[in-house]
Each structure stands twice: as C-alpha cells, then as structure tokens.
Design a protein that fits this description.
The protein is an alpha+beta fold. The protein has 22 helices and 29 strands. The strands form 6 sheets. A 6-stranded antiparallel sheet has the order 3-2-1-6-5-4. A 6-stranded antiparallel sheet has the order 8-7-12-11-10-9. Helix 2 runs antiparallel to helix 5, helix 19 packs across helix 20 and helix 20 packs across helix 21.
C-alpha cells in the first residue's frame, strides 16, 4: 500500500479545513441530499462527502458507510486531494492497484474495489475534502459518470462556500471595531456589494488596490472617467460580467478571474478576483462578497517565463485538441531533428496520450529516446496539452546495467522522525533501516543531535528552538547525519511543530537523503572552476582569487606578485610528440608548479600552455623576481614521457609587483606585458617589470 503524500500547502490547506468549522458537526440535510443523489445517479451502495483533516478523514455526509471517520493514511480521499488536474480520481479495481490492494478497507470489510472521487475546494481555493462514490464491485467510469461527479462536486463546493460566507458574516457581526481591525490588516482587497452592485463594506486594501476613495466607493463622489476595468485584450468589462454579478446571478462562487484596473493616477494593475453570493438566514440573496489580490507582478513574471521558454533545457511543446503543434522550442526541434518552421502546425508525433519514454526517429534516420511528461490545460473553452521532452538516450543505454539495482530505488523512502522540544527521539519510521542502516525500531530512544555532524549541530538546535517557540520553517535545512557505518550522509530536512496535537505531541521531521545531489553539485562546481586536464584552478578562479588578495593587501599594506608563465617551444614539442604526449607534458608542468609553491602561493592554468602564479606575500621587486626565477627553474629540465621519449621544456615568465588601488585585470595585463619582454629577451627567463 502506498501512503498518500502531504500537499505542498498542507499547513494552509488544514487551516482552511479548520476555518470551515465543519469537523465533528451534526449531519446537515444540504449535504446529505447530495450523497443520496450521488448514490442514486451512479448506482453505488456508498456515497460520501469527506473532510480531510490532519491525520484523519471525517465524513460530513455518508450513505452506506457506518464509520464517522478513518485514518488519513488508509483513506482514498487523501489521494483524491492530490489529483493534479483537479478532476475525478478513479480507481477501477483496488485489488489490482498497488496503491490500495493492501488497504484495510480493501482486504477487510467492506472490501472496497471501486472508488471515484472529486476534490472539494474551499472558497479560498484549498482542497479540503472530496465527494466520492464507492462500490464493492470493480467497474469502469464513463465520461457521463465523470460529469455527474463533477456536477455534484460543484454543488457540494457551493454549499462549502455558503458555510464560508456564513462564518465570515458571523465574525463581521461580532464587533464593528474588531471587524474594522481585521479587515484593515488583510492584504487582500475585500468588498461586500448588494445584488445591484452597490458597495456596502470594504477594507483599506480594497481602496489601495482599486485606487478609489471611500466617497467614490459609496457613490457620493463621481469616479474619474479614466477609471475602468478591462480584459486582457483591452476591452472594457460589462457590469453583468463582473465576478460579483455572475455570483449573484448564478448563486455559485466565481474563482480566479483576472481583471485589469485602469486607475485614475494613470497606472494599470491586474487583480485576481474571487466572488461568492451572500445568502441571508431566511434564504434570500443579500449580495456578494469578493476578495482580490494584485497579480501585476505575477503577470510580468509570466511574460518573463515566455521569454525564457526558448532557453529551457528540455523540449517544451504546446499541442491543441487536434494534436497539432501550436508552439515548441529549439530544444524539441533539435531532439527530433527538424526546424521550428517545419514543426509549427505539424502533427505531434508521439500523440497526446504518450507518457514516459518514446523512441523518435529524425528525418535523417537518427534514433533518440525521449522522456515525455505532459499536462492538460483548459483555457477559454479549449483543451491544450503541454508536453515536456528530455533526451534520455544515454540513460536508456545504461538501463540494462542498472536494472539489477532498481529494487534498491523502488524501496527508497524519506525518513520521518518525531522528537520532543529538546530533540529527544519519540518515533523513527521503518525506513531508518534502509536509509541509515539502524534497526527499524519505532520506539528508538536517544538524542537526535547525537546523529548530526558537529558542524551542523548549532544550526539544527537553533531551528528546533525556533520551531518549538512556534515559528514556521521557511525553507529546507541541509545537514549531515551519520549512518550505521559511521559515514556522513547529507539530508534535506523539513519540520513542523505538532507539539500541541495530542495524537502526535512532538515536532515531526521529514528527512530526504540528498547525498548524491550534494556530491554532484560539488563536482559541477569543481568542473566549472578547474582545468579538466591538469585539475588546476582556471581563469575564473584566477581573477576572483587575485582580486581577493589585492583587497587584503589594501587593508594590510602587504604586497603580492603575479608571475605570468608561457612554455617555450611548446607548439613545436606538441607537433613533434603528438597532442596526447603534449597533454602529458602540461600535466607534468602543472605538478612541478604545485610543488614549487609556498604556503600562500597559488597557481592557475589560463589556457593552452599559459599559467599564472600568485606569490603571496613578497617584500619587494627583488623578492618577486627571485620567486619568478625559482618557478622557471622548477619547470626547466628534461623529462621522460610515458612512451619513452625524452623532451626538454623551458619557460618564460613576466613578473610584476602589486600596486595600490590596482584591479586583478590590471595586474594580469601588466604581467602579460612583462612576459612579452621575457620572450623578446631570448626566452627561458623571468623578467620583472615595474608599474
């Protein structure tokens, strides 16, 4: 059985659940009639409206189901709220589905086999539960059945929205002073309007976002004709198209509508608006409540993403309903060996249903394996598919060698621990045996800091102290933990404070082993800053480290010298002995330069047969020249290559002494000039050049 994951916004989602105020309440006919209708229309014995809490799933309405709640880990509904497309989550036969075949509701009474559910969102868009139907018989789900579930879920969501609105109104009526304080501390704009559109209440954020004064909002002062709401194409919004007007007219919430506001100061801001009808206790329509946020920057970022589109490291293709390519990028064109012009409007070869690895053959006969992932997007009544493609040809070639190790990855999992406020272990998940090699004992006792690297303990203790004090972890923390073999592993850690939850009573820590990623990052950083042949630091580090030394000299009054080295006759040697032997010679020179360095000195390969040595510190020009000659002497002399040939290689060097207020680029240019003097003077020597 595969346990449901936690949504990325779990804290906010659970907050929305609590805000509904429905947990552990009495049944209500408005929800019960929905599950009765679901069972009748879909011919199933069980229909439910669930609320997914923190560790359980509670059933607000149930038909054919005797339990009031179930564990969240055992619930199908906990999977439903993770449905990526916000559509029907369908399990045709749970006994053949690896996620559920070991589920106690499947193996034991009521022996569930079929499940179909749709996420239910709160007014602020969080997935708080599900409308679902269940059967003890396996069955498929037709498109008509799916639409029934979608329609019933929309009705259930409207009832949840009514709950949200009733709660909001009750809070508003509690105290005018408290209401004003709360409204004015909300960053989102919030307004309440009559059914005819007249503003009744609003907060300070609404005035700021709309760019209107209180007198203009009440209608006692005319609004400048320049003010207005526009669509993305610049056309004006009609009054009956406003989200609040639609909510009033349909009796249903309207979510996520974007409107442009031309304000009287000449600026334009874009707002994302949610509106819901407000129903009086007697069932009559009072008006609508709307909330909105400024998404101007978000839209700008969207345009930036469009600009980045063609620079994406993977192929990205947008396909319409007829399987024709609307837009693609250079990466995909390169992957399939065709031009962008040829691909636009062409049929998308893999087809919309293709997911996973697909073999593609280019017009020239080249075969490549592409990994396809895609998602469906609904926009303006049309369906589009966005498909990402990555060239995995190399990976496929290695798959046969890696298959014997695949079971190791199949069983890999995150490590979950629970500690008290002082870091004492209360619980450790069974994955500790696979991940760290320790016995899988859930009651393993001890101090968690004893497992953490000494250099990481201070930050780990600080984060635990913050969590215990009620603060929230803002980003993952990476720490090192020793395994049973006393090796340090890198883990990315997220934690949440559940000390006040009676069922948990601790701080829950989720840790993911990212050692391989850390190693890869270190290797990539090294490759970016080091010469691949000699493993010496490259030009990038040279400029940076010389600049650092010069800055230190400015503060301390010390001086450093730069020695710019070029091998004499290397091209001739390279032509005579071949490039492989030439590379061997460069490696030998690099090793000799390393051996010639003093404690504070550094060496870089700039390119070809050129090297730079930083002599740090030096007393004067004489000291600098002596050091340069020592370095030339270290390079000189014969050496025997691996093929037995004997070669002799000398070098010329230009030496300069640092001057006040000099940049890294300037001192390197001066050293290069000194090198040219050494070459002109007959080579195989070090020449000092003053400022």
């Amino acid at each position: 059985m595969i346990l449901p994951a936690l949504p990325l916004d779990e804290d906010r989602r659970y907050g929305a659940v609590l805000d509904l105020g429905l947990l552990d309440t009495e049944p209500e006919e408005r929800f019960d009639r929905i599950v009765r209708l679901a069972a009748r229309l879909l011919d199933v014995p069980i229909a439910l409206i669930s609320i997914v809490a923190d560790d359980r799933v509670w059933y607000k309405a149930r038909l054919g189901w005797h339990r009031t709640h179930t564990d969240r880990d055992d619930s199908f509904c906990a999977h439903t709220i993770l449905e990526p497309n916000d559509d029907v989550f369908h399990v045709a036969d749970a006994t053949s589905d690896e996620r559920f075949r070991d589920n106690p509701h499947v193996t034991d009474s009521p022996h569930l086999r079929f499940y179909a559910g749709h996420p239910l969102r709160s007014l602020d868009g969080h997935r708080v539960g599900a409308l679902c139907v269940v059967d003890d018989r396996a069955r498929d789900l037709s498109e008509a059945d799916r639409q029934v579930i979608r329609d019933l879920a929309a009705i259930a969501e409207s009832e949840l929205a009514r709950t949200d609105v009733r709660i909001a109104l009750a809070q508003l009526d509690e105290s005018e002073r408290r209401k004003a304080l709360i409204l004015d501390t909300i960053h989102d704009g919030l307004v309440m309007q009559t059914a005819r559109g007249r503003f009744l209440e609003w907060n300070a954020a609404a005035e700021r976002l709309l760019g209107l004064t209180p007198r203009q909002l009440t209608g006692s002062e005319p609004v400048d004709p320049l003010w207005g709401a526009v669509h993305a194409d610049g056309t004006a919004w009609a009054f009956d198209e406003f989200p609040a007007s639609v909510a009033v007219r349909t009796g249903l919430p309207v979510v996520g509508i974007e409107m442009g506001i031309n304000r009287t100061d000449g600026t334009q801001r874009w707002l994302r608006v949610n509106s819901a009808p407000v129903i009086n206790p007697d069932g009559t329509l009072r008006g609508a409540v709307s909330s909105f946020i400024d998404v101007t920057d978000e839209r700008a970022n969207s345009m930036l993403l469009d600009a980045i589109y063609d620079q994406a490291p993977v192929g990205i293709t947008v396909v319409d309903e007829s399987n024709r390519i609307i837009r693609t990028n250079e990466q995909y064109a390169s992957q399939v060996g065709q031009s962008l012009e040829t691909l636009r409007g062409a049929e998308f070869t893999p087809g919309l249903i293709a997911v996973g690895d697909q073999m593609m053959t280019a017009p020239d006969g080249t075969e490549r394996w592409l990994q396809l992932t895609g998602s469906r997007v609904e926009s303006s009544g049309h369906t589009f598919h966005v498909v990402a493609t990555a060239d995995v040809t190399s990976r496929r070639r290695l798959e046969s060698e890696l298959i014997r190790f695949s079971f190791l990855f199949a069983h890999a999992t995150d490590l979950i621990t629970i500690v008290d406020k002082d870091g004492m272990l209360l619980y450790v998940s069974p994955s500790v045996e696979r991940v760290l090699g320790y016995p899988a004992d859930p009651t393993l006792a001890g101090d968690i800091f004893g497992m953490i690297h000494p250099d990481d303990q201070e930050i780990a203790r600080f984060e635990l102290f913050r969590l215990a004090a009620g603060e929230t972890q803002q980003r993952p923390l990476t720490i090192r933990v020793h395994d049973s073999r006393a090796q340090w592993r890198h883990f990315e850690v997220l934690a949440v404070n559940l000390l006040d939850e009676p069922e948990v009573g601790g701080i829950v820590i989720t840790a993911r082993d990212v050692s391989d990623r850390q190693l890869l990052t270190s290797r990539l950083e090294h490759q970016a800053t080091h010469d691949p042949l000699t493993d010496l630091p490259n030009r990038t580090l040279c400029q940076r480290e010389i600049a650092t030394s010069l800055a230190r000299c400015e503060r301390s009054g010390d001086r450093v010298a730069v020695c710019y080295i070029d091998l004499d006759g290397f091209k001739r040697i390279n032509d005579e002995v071949g490039h492989d032997s030439g590379d061997e010679l460069l490696i030998d020179v690099a090793n000799r330069l390393r051996a010639a360095l003093r404690g504070g000195d550094s060496v870089w390969r700039i390119g070809g047969d050129e090297f730079i040595v930083l002599i740090d510190p030096v007393a004067d020009d004489h000291d600098a020249l002596v050091a340069g000659r020592r370095i030339i002497a270290a390079i000189e002399g014969p050496r025997v290559l691996s093929d037995g040939r004997r070669v002799t290689c000398g070098a010329s060097a230009g030496v300069v002494l640092s001057e006040p207020n000099e940049s890294a680029a300037q001192i390197v240019v001066r050293a290069d000039g000194a090198l040219r003097l050494a070459k002109a003077a007959g080579k195989n020597r070090a020449v000092f050049a003053g400022a």
